[in-house]
Design brief:
The complex is a heterodimer. Chain A is α+β, with helices and mostly antiparallel strands. Chain A is built from two helices and six strands. Chain B has a single domain, classed as Ammonium transporter AmtB like domains (Ammonium transporter fold, Orthogonal Bundle), CATH 1.10.3430.10. Chain B has a two-stranded antiparallel ribbon with strand order 1-2. Classes of the chains: A alpha+beta, B mainly alpha.
Chain lengths: ~110, ~450
Amino acid sequence: MKLIIAIFRPEKLDAVRAALIKHEITRMTLSRVSGHGRAQHRTGLFRGREVDIPLMPKIRMEIACNDEFKDEIVDAILQNARTEGDTPGDGKIFVLPLEECIRIRTGETGGEAI
Amino acid sequence: MSLLSVWPQTSRWGVAAFLLLPALAFAESTPVAPPLPQKTLDTGHTAWMLVSCALVLLMVPGLAMFYGGLTRTRNVLSTMMHSFVAMGIFGVQWVIVGFALAFGTQPLIPGFVGWSNDFLLLQGITPETLWGETGVPTYLFAMFQGKFAIITPALIAGALAERVKFKGYCLFILLWGFLVYDPLVYLVWNADGMLFKDGAIDFAGGTVVHISAGVSGLVGALFLGARRGYPHSTMKPNNLTMSLTGAGLLWIGWFGFNAGSAISASASAVQALTVTQTAAAAGAVGWMLIEVFQHGKATALGLVSGIVAGLVAITPAAGSVTPAWALLFGVGASAVCYGMVLLKTKLGYDDTLDVFGIHGVGGIFGALLVGFAATNLGGFSQFLIQLKSVAIAIALAGGGTALIAWTVERTVGFRASEEEEMLGLDYSQHGEVGYGLTHL
């Protein structure tokens, strides 16, 4: 089992979700997060002056899956969260080994419970 | 136990009495005498108009909050800006030429648009100049009407929200003021206007404000097309508490809008205030009951939608119906507007905040019903006059909006790009965010 954590641009959320749902990956957890990457800071306007907005808003998506689904999920995210051109800031995907998964309602464990 | 067993019978009588009320009230009502002509400044009338003028402006931040709370987080600020920028643009346009075009005494295009050199920059009049025989200074009348010129285009913004380019919106409302609003005011409210001469009733702007904004919103929404993701993705309000606060300000401001339209501190203003209060409350209760019967829950958004529907419907009729009729205006408007909001989903067009569903449909409902309900005029002949004025307002607003939208799209651009829309209009159009707590 794997835990996939993807951090990407908020404006790509709809496209990523739609692609995953098309592949019948419908179980996910989302949160709005902020942080630093290699991307240039966004700038904002304050009283006519350009100011840096140091923390960038991103979406964090977590999906737990059985091993055979990993590539499909990673591909779907890669294809849909990437922007044209070569500007940093599209985000990252982390794939972690997952030791155990337990469904609270039934107490099932392992691959069955995912 | 005894109370419970008595209840159904009394409630049945209650319902019967409620249904009979309008008929009884209609039979017994007498027309309200107009205020006496005034040759000198009347301090009472002027004081009330000063207050009304401020109350109508209060509706604009109210509208900004109402609309702003209903959009997604990424568009909250841009949506509020749509209302606020109208205060700037029309605050300027109205003083320079708007008032002259709408209320000028000489015809520029006979029956449609007027002109007065005196009203160009309001330069030919002084604070002492009185407006007709109202006893109210022309400056004050012009400022009061100027607030209507602000809120009407701001209402349209609800149909364009979350996908309109800010530059395109600004150009759109400016052209709309010249091409649709000023002529429509002249037609309906100027003594030389075609519909005014017909005897069309529009006490406070059912036709001029709500039908025109509603229909223009529909045409604008169709022109722009649906937001990306609509209707499959959920597009939930970012802050309903702000929408409720905004709706409350709208209700308060509406007393200036309707009772101020009497242009006097008179019996007519008192009547307008009474029926405005009654219709708003009836609209709220009506929408709430419909929701309770359909879904088992009364929603906050539903309740405020009912308030606005009731207020919109009573606007043309505020000077000429009884409180009992006002109950029917409110409940009836909630029913037809609720139906239209459901129908929108079936038809699939994306009127973001239901400007047509509530202002358009509620305005048409009120403008037609007043033909039957008006205490001194009611009847079929008045209904036909109302029908004609509604048809002309729809044609002018619809045709004008289509032409303006086409022009704007080909010059500065009307719709935001896909990237701008997905990023959110707050950041892409203004370089700011509404709620900056986490990312600043």
